[in-house]
User: Fold this.
Amino acid sequence: MYAFVRGKIDSIYTDCIIVEANGVGYRIYTSLKTMEAAGAAGEDVKLYTYLHVREDAMLLYGFYTREELACFELLISVSGVGPKAALALLSKHTPSKISLAVVSGDYKLLKEAPGVGLKTAQRVVLELKDKIMKESKDTELAEVVFNEESGAGEGDSAVREAISALTVLGYSQIEAGKAVLKVYKEGMTVEDVIKEALRQG
Assistant:
């Protein structure tokens, strides 16, 4: 319903920011990292948003970057993980660090977030690793860019799948392509390419 909200910061609380846009004050729940990046009261801000609908309320969540929003949406897709746990993870770690933890199976790092227990951290890794590794969007850019710029053989699956995985995490096709081209070496697995791209990012 709302792609983003652009306006002036009215006030900042421990778990949300009030943004005034065209005379309307939007209560936007967010992570500590977005609060730090958004600025102070009176400053202009643009937050990418997600409307969470429950039986008893409609809550708006917003983030300073598209990557953080994409990571939030991935996290709440995990069974048993709600917005509160997702915000705790994003307040503790960057989207790239969370994604790297998922791909590498490092549930202990995820467990560092307040309120995220062992079972929840393991569930995040279990459910999202497969999604990040296998879910894909358009892979045409991967084939064209990689073949033209690196000289790799047509249809290199590791490259295509790695770029597709990064787009799932919120990277644009061009950003994903550049990140993969920067780290790819012949013989690397999809998982290795994703790990290195996230580390470099």
